[in-house]
Amino acid sequence: VAQATERLPLMTYVTCPTVRYHPAVVAQKAATVQLLSQGRFRLGLGSGENLNEHVVGHGWPTAPVRVEMLEEAVGIIRAL
Known about the structure:
This protein is mainly alpha-helical. It is 44% helix and 5% strand. It has a two-stranded parallel ribbon. The chain is elongated and about 40 Å long.
């Protein structure tokens, strides 16, 4: 899409850079798309939800803990 368009903004829905994906992996993938789209990429981040907690084999942290984890992850992503 980035190659075939010039003005169309590109973005994710919301991804969880804490329990599901490591913040460094999210940062690398986002940076790659940002370069390929010449600055038109927007990254959506969220603290996650427990709908699919069975996938990771255990329960998710409480909402306040997930928010703290998200804040730390955003800091890591911005730094990278």
